[in-house]
């Protein structure tokens, strides 16, 4: 499967919406462009692209008369063929490249973590310690590639291209990944990044006890033209959720933020833990 770009994902979602509004079945739409129903589903899922003539035929089938909308969708079909900067890292897992494509397109990411520092906030040393501890025992070359990619991804935040809301359990701040020196550097870096206007950090303190989703980390990606997506990383595979599941996660995230310390109080906690837990 080709790595879907965010443009393909958005285009596919738009086509699915237009087909459903036109009350046309997947089989009927597929027949209109002479592909199988499974191929059309892959197009609607953003897994494969669609060429201009086939897209035009679908829009005709769906009775889409809006000239501006047609032009926009045709433009998206052309852009969907573009390769992102991450394409040169061919050894990266397919699902990871897919996520990077969506992340690169997002306007905002709300990331909730229970165990580790969110990837977009990790220092090089912290990221290296995390990657090196992988269950598959990666080679030094694989570790370096993953660290390089993670640092490249962070430019979205440091260059102000992305709004980041990072909510994390207090446990994230105490866990000594890489040792005391690495953690001191990591917490210091978080304090510096929190000074950026596009970054908000909040910590859920231990005193809150049990709370919603405390056993599951997830990220909500807000895309310019929708639909928004929830990404859930798991040991046995990654999951993308759309539709009603996204709204459910948004509700949970709002509850988590309400349970968390304020951004200013969270930064004070980070400073305190840096000075008490991570002394050499």
What does this structure look like?
It is a single chain. This protein is α/β, with parallel strands linked by helices. It is built from 13 helices and six strands. It has helices at 6-21, 26-32, 37-44, 52-61, 67-79, 94-105, 124-132, 140-153, 155-158, 171-174, 180-193, 244-259, 263-276, and strands spanning 108-113, 163-169, 199-204, 218-222, 229-232, 239-241. Strands 3-2-1-4-5-6 form a six-stranded mixed sheet, sandwiched between helices. Strand 5 (229-232) and strand 6 (239-241) form a beta hairpin. The protein is elongated.
- Report the order of strands and helices: HHHHHHEHHHEHHEEEEHH
The overall strand count is 6
CATH class of the largest domain: Alpha Beta
User: What is the end-to-end distance?
Assistant: 47 Å
Beta fraction: 5-15%
Uncertain runs are none
CATH topology of the largest domain: Endonuclease, Chain A
Largest sheet: 6 strands, mixed
* Reported CATH architecture of the largest domain: 2-Layer Sandwich
